[in-house]
Amino acid sequence: MKARKAKEYIFNDLLSMETYCKGHYSDYYPKSDFSCNVTQLSKGELVTSSICAPINDAHLEIFKSNQTILYEEEANQNSVAFCWISNQGEHLQSNTIISGHKMVDLSIAGFNRLNKTGGNIWDIVGANTMLCCMSLKWEKMKEKIHKMNAYNAFAKLEECIGIDSNSSASIQLKNLFERHFTKGLVKSDAFYDLAIATLEEPCDQEVNLTERSDKTDLIEDLVKFLYEDSKGMPPLTIGEITKYLNTEKESLSIACRTNFNMPILDLIKSIRLEQVKKSYLNPHVPKGLKHFTKQQNALYYGFKNWTKFEKSYFATFQESPDETIEKSSRDSVLITDLMRRQR
């Protein structure tokens, strides 16, 4: 059996990225109703890339963006994710946060999906950070956990968000991942075994482990609320947000600055600017109609002053609404096959 081809997808808008994420997920979990939202948080022209390397029963991906982005998706009980940063031999400071776990060189995080049915998962991927993501099928992993009597691993999957681990299993897991992207493996069993061993095995140094807390729940609820906020309404006030989330203004402000490095109103503005941009990129709407309704679309997402909106839009995306609409009629995704050495 030969390894399937790896493909690199290069995006210059996040609507295309969302579309491909949904497609990739449905390939591995066809019965799932998967949805996601991606927002550019930093300012500048966007270029993101995703390298997907197919293998049975595992979704393996390397993601990189030149801008800081916020990624949100519905939680599910089909998959368990393990994510880490590849520093390529450099010791780098990163502002990447996976589901509430601040990522450093030793971090592995993202596996807190199982007790979040009906909730959501959120990640912040720092600009120019190479993020390695492995998604494993929960039913297969659960079966292996029981066979291995790995009940410490099961407990961590239920209670934890991420760990900083220098265990031999975590090192082997990352090396195996890298080997798959350079040579192409054909079986996924070793990924499951090493993922479970990573959760079971003690580390040589004190482990930094992030457990679920009221603070992580608050940010999850905030992100979900902002994406589900009623469109076409005036921008939310801090008071309205804190009332809905049943929290104090100071607690919300601290949590937002700690995780997003911006005030709550700036986060709302970033999300709504991205929503307007995606409306301009909608492939199902004729270009002429997009030009005709561009101001109404901005108003629909809470931007009352068109002149101020245009300035904010250009400052964020380095292009005008008209330029976005013109680009929307062109193919914005570059897809290339990657050559890998065979085993």
Task: Provide the descriptors you would attach to this structure in a database record.
343 residues; alpha+beta; six-stranded antiparallel beta sheet
Could you characterize the architecture of this molecule?
The chain has 13 helices and 14 strands. Helix 3 packs across helix 5 (189-200). The mean pLDDT is 87. Helix content is 43%, strand content 22%. The protein has a 6-stranded antiparallel sheet, with helices on both faces. Strands 2-5-10-7-8 form a 5-stranded antiparallel sheet, sandwiched between helices. It has 343 residues and is an alpha+beta fold. It is globular and about 60 Å long.
Strand content: 15-25%
Helix content: 40-55%
Total E-strand runs: 14
Main sheet attributes: strand count, strand direction, barrel closure:
6 strands, antiparallel
Radius of gyration, CA atoms, in whole angstroms: 21 Å
Mean pLDDT: 87
